Amino acid sequence: MGELFQKARTLMAAGRPAEAAPRLQEARELMYVLVERIPGDVEAKSTLGSVLYGLGSALRSIDEPEQAVEALWECAEIYEELDGLGEPGMRARAADVHARAAQALSALDNGVSAVLESDQAVAAYVELGADAVGHPLFLDLARVLTLNALVMFVHGDGDLAVRSADRAVRAYLSRADEINAGSFEEVAVHGRYLRDAAEVAARVHTAQDRPAAALAAEEVEVHAARQLARSGSPGDRAALADVLTRHGLSLQRTGLTEEGVHLVQEGRGVDREAAEHATRDWRGPTGEGTADHGPVLWSPSFSRALADADAVLGGDRVPQSLRNLAADPTDETAAVIPSQRCDAQLAPVVAGRLAQLAVALLADPDRYSPEDACLLGREAHLLFAVASRAEVLSLRQRFGDFGVDWARLLLALIPAYEAQSDGWVTAQELVRWLDVVAGQLEPFAGLDEETARLVEECRACAVR
After folding, report:
1. Please, which of 133, 205, 246, 409 could form a disulfide with 214 given CB 3.0 to 4.6 Å?
2. What domain range is 412 assigned to?
């Protein structure tokens, strides 16, 4: 088995995941036999976890995200079991697996699940103290923050995405000397994560109209992309052409025309097709973006959505406890994941208030953006979900109250997402959650007619 696993790892390192995957699947079957034969063998279980992690990575690389998620979740369960037995290093391994699972779920467009997996990964590293500069897991956290930023950028709150990306960039830059002293492979790995984090930061800062911050992030991205492109890899050269073009157009927008034009021309010289794609992307689907007016971008923003709700409904409808959640997107100390918005013990109460607000806003689409109402509602759902994951006592003890708010929120969110052109998958994710919430409300249905009707409505929505 060891030789089989080593051969698979060699193939993965050589960029040949399609050849590695069947070997890893064979190794998994062999490890199942060994673990079944000796259930208490910690080393065997750890090896099975490593095989599953490699298999998940290989399957994701060959566009098999569903199978990748299954392998990674199984891997996480093993590492968490070993962590419970006191095996050192397993909590960090499990966190890394959750970060990888988030990427696979993102590829399936299961955004709600991806955000929750990413939340779990970041939270675990922070609880391990990895956010301290001298901690041995500091750069691991930087990597996970980058992956988190990518998930939040596509599926979550842009405020969380940009804070996570900015924090990752600062972490990598603070350890630049140490990184650059490493092997070429180590430098390349960290460089790619730095490039990705800087790109997310640049895009969100641009979309949220912070041009100075966007330009600073693009400069970091250009530097990282130049270093990576030295390898001659087509992918790295395309990435360099992309950022050179975007940064050049951004500089032209700010009045630095000569420098901007030079970078755009350089990008075309590196990879013309990638540069042209970057130009179209910068100008937006309508072609309205120009060097004078900038790119046509939109980034969901929880803080902006909450401020707009306050303006539309008035202060009486948006309590201070919710306003406190709306931190400045550039605040270096604010949340980068949903579970950091408030203390876990307060999450059910905050989620309930936010859910009630979102339901009211979804019922009045003429006065308030349905997209922003969905954002607020989704964040309320995520707070309920993280409270459930943390087994918060008040959520269990008062589920007859909190569960009603949760169910009503989901019943309002599901049709709202179904009405969006790209919202069907999210709606189906929420339907599955609704089925779970309805099941937990069942014991209360016999005590209250209104709850009984609500459960019936949930069941009808789940089976339609």
Report:
1. 205
2. 303-463
Instruction: Please state the length of the chain.
Output: 464
CA distance 157 to 148: 11
Q: Is 300 exposed, middle or buried (0-12, 13-18, 19+ CB in 10 A)?
A: buried
Asked whether the beta carbons of 275 and 291 are under 8 A apart, the reply is no
Q: If we measure between CA atoms, which residue out of 400, 308, 413, 396 comes closest to residue 358? A: 413
- Answer yes or no: are the C-beta atoms of 275 and 267 closer than 8 Å: yes
Question: What per-residue string of b and e applies to 130-141 under the rule 16 or more CB within 10 Å gives b?
Answer: bbeeeeebbbbb
Is 114:106 a contact under the CB 8 Å cutoff? yes
Tell me what pLDDT residue 427 has.
95
Query: Residue 90: its pLDDT value, please?
Result: 96
Closest by Cα among 389, 303, 271, 403 to 339: 389
Residue closest to 222 by CA, chosen among 241, 203, 235, 200: 241
Residue 297 has pLDDT above 90, yes or no: no
Supply the pLDDT for residue 285: 44
DSSP category for residue 15: T
CB 65 within 8 A of CB 59: yes
CA-based nearest residue to 341, from 357, 359, 326, 319: 326
> 235: which 2 tokens?
């992918």
30 contacts: CB under 8 Å, gap ≥ 6: 1, 4
| CA-to-CA dists, residue 54 to 22, 150, 329, 411, angstroms | 11, 21, 36, 39
Tokens 């005590």 correspond to 447
Q: What is the DSSP letter of 346?
A: G
**Contact criterion met (CB below 8 Å) for 121 and 96:** yes
- Residue 269 placed within a domain: no
Structure tokens at 285: 């689907």
Q: Which helix (H) or strand (E) holds 284?
A: none
CB–CB of 408/359 below 8 Å? yes
How many folded domains does the chain comprise?
1
Token pair 């339901």 is found at 359
- Position 348 in a domain: yes
Does residue 115 form part of some domain?
A: no
What tokens appear for 234 in the block? 């087509």
Give 313-360 pLDDT, tens digit per residue: 876 778 888 888 888 888 888 999 999 999 999 999 999 999 999 999
Q: Does the pLDDT of residue 156 top 70, yes or no?
A: yes
Number of Cβ within a 10 Å radius of residue 228:
20
